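Hi V.,

You were right to ask for the full record rather than a summary. Here it is.
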Amino acid sequence: MKNFLFVIVMAAVVVAAIELYAVQRDQLADCRADREALLQQLFESSSKCDSLSAETDRLTLSVAELVRVRRELTERLKSQGLSLRRIESLSQSVAVTLVEPSVAVVPLADSLRRFEWNDPWVRVSGVVAPDSISCRIESVDTLLQTLYRVPYRWWFFRWGTKAVRQRVGSSNPHTRIVYSEYIELR
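Predicted structure:
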């Protein structure tokens, strides 16, 4: 009788565990679908930022999801010598600088002259008239901000967090990063 009761209890525990596993699997699938939808929404809205500031939602991804969705970004981070599992957060912004100055000059000739110069990051074009110069300067830049943990070390053992460091990189070789600041409010 005790063995029969034990078998029934064990069967009930196994059935309950299978049910809990199925519920958890469904919730994870829903969570992944929500993340994919949010990612798609963020990628579509990222091109709509045409002001001095931009606002975006926070997205929480696992390392595996980051590698799957943004492979080129993870390869760039690995090439900088950063371990993906130590990264706390990432922020990437694209900025376009557009300048259209107009300068008056003394007339030298009666003809108009047009000039152009470009590379993958900067485009300069303009017209030299007898009495003025007008030009257009457009610069595209992608800033990548990475926050990562520096663990305590002793020999080959690593544990805890000794510091959190920030690295800001630019994809434009003409850009010089002058200042960067990280403030965390709690």
